[in-house]
Protein: HD domain-containing protein
Amino acid sequence: MSSSSPFPSLPVCQITIPSNDLINAAYFYTKEHTSEATVNHCLRCAAFSLLFIREFPPLASAPIDLEAVVLSSLMHDMGWSTTKSLLSTDKRFEVDGANIARDFISRNAAESGKWDAHRIQLLWDAIALHTTPSIAQHKQPEVVAVALGILADFLGPNLPLPGNPITVERYKEIVGAFPRAGFSDELVDTLCGLCRDKPQTTFENFVSGFGKTYGLDGKGGGKEEWIKTCEDNEITKRLMGGLQACKQWDD
Structure:
């Protein structure tokens, strides 16, 4: 790992986010294409992941690809990129982020031989599944660590997990090093914007809930219409409606 790290040491936590040429390049790429609030969120998530890797029993005893964890954490919200040309019009933001990260690694590291298909898939899975902990927790340790680190940024010391390593003191140090910078407001604006601009990508995940709560503009606008749209696209209705329509061909 490089000694010219762009990341500060965290003496209370006794961790430093690993740094090398690829990680640094990913960090600056993320800074170029996302907001300050998103970058700091990703850095906090990386730091929290490192605490889980060191101290959470299921991870502490496992061999961990730290580079994959840090890169996945840094790039996991590229699906919120402010550079709209990087984004699709028809994919969930998690998939956009995973694809952008995979393409970045393929451009910058695949030829080195250190990033084979397995490691790239590991990175893709960690990003694509980071909002689905019920699945991520059954994947590789790296995927688990990334999902836990991201969840910890929302729940901190209140994360209901036995052996949660995020103490109040550690939490305050990490947030102090990488301030929230309006992250809560930006989160609402971003996810409500997905409901408005890519509604078909939000019906099967938590994103639609932001539109139900905050409307399509983050201020309550269009909320009732959005709730009706979600009800019409509810998966149970779609599945049962499909079965009903197929009855004409059933034996």
